Amino acid sequence: MLLGKDSKNSMLSVRRINWLRLIVALASAAYLLYRIVILIIRPEYDLVYWLGFLNTGLIVGGMYALIAIGYTLVYGVLLLINFAHGDVMMLGCFAGYFTFEYLSFLQVGDTSFLNRYPVISILLAFLLGASVSAVSGYYLEKIAYRPIRNSRIRLAPLISAVGASIFLETAAQIMFGPNKKTYKNPALLERGTGWNIEMGDGMIIITKTGVFSLVLAVVLMVGLYLFVQKTKLGKSIRAVSQDKHTAQLMGINLDRVTSQTFIISGILAGAAGVMWGIHNGIFNHYVGFLPGIKAFTAAVVGGIGNIPGAMVGGMVLGILESVGPAFLAIDFQLKDVIAFAILILVLILKPSGLFGKSSSSVEKV
Length: 365
Hints:
Blueprint: H1 5-41, H2 47-78, H3 85-105, E1 107-108, E2 111-112, H4 113-116, H5 118-145, H6 156-176, E3 181-182, E4 194-199, E5 202-207, H7 208-230, H8 232-242, H9 244-249, H10 254-280, E6 282-283, H11 289-302, H12 307-328, H13 335-349
Antiparallel strand pairs: 1-2, 3-6, 4-5
Helix pairs in contact: 2-7, 2-8, 2-10, 2-11, 2-12, 3-5, 3-6, 3-10, 3-11, 5-10, 7-8, 7-10, 8-10, 11-12, 11-13, 12-13
């Protein structure tokens, strides 16, 4: 069978890409093997330090996973990357901050409401943070995305998302000021306090805020997974994500499901924002930028559009980002480079992500 010129060029291009993937994979594997051998021969860190890095990575990874789920939910419904999602998280972080500030100012007897009723204060902070982010996500979809949902210009949603992100950051800077702020935690979750576990000549510090953030992140992720699998709205979201047109023919309201998806993703982002403030303390109007980009990386690593993949991707990215500098013998300030290097490697070696379906596995009619 004779092949046309275009078919031959296409096959040649595919072969080149496959060779590129093979070279990158072999080079990456060789370097990782080299670093493993070096660490075995000349260990630079004791076991206690590696466990400390792992502890930090799990905490940060849980927050990345929560934000990544928001990217995955929106992409599954609209095939849209909501690059303003990190700024929705930022608004939730501010809402939690102002909640704690007001409750610390409110006096109950000889102490503040914040320390007299710490559990209620934390619940209020998460409630308001999640509510503000949910409302922001709802109106973000209404104003920035719905009018151009069916636009013939493919870059229109991306441009709108970037514009919405800049608008939210600028609005937060104007309303709340450019200076960095510090979360005023209740004494129950005072930063830097926790449990010290001695191991050999070192010590692992497990902070209260870290344990709280990790446990809450896992609970929210499991709760969301069960919600999507078991509830009527969850089934509607999955149906729209699989086939919009057939879902509409079956009576599912696309506009309503889309709005509810943005609300759910906003709730998760708002919770992650409050957790970020409680654990890290210092933040400003740019607090959602890097976590948002890294959460997008986590969603791609796990397989964009796959909820369990986003969960695993967030955890994996958090751990690799924490352990990576020590493993690769680079400055710890370069940990952000590791996250984006992982994104590049995944896009080259397995663009569909760890749990995504390869396009070659899709049956064509």
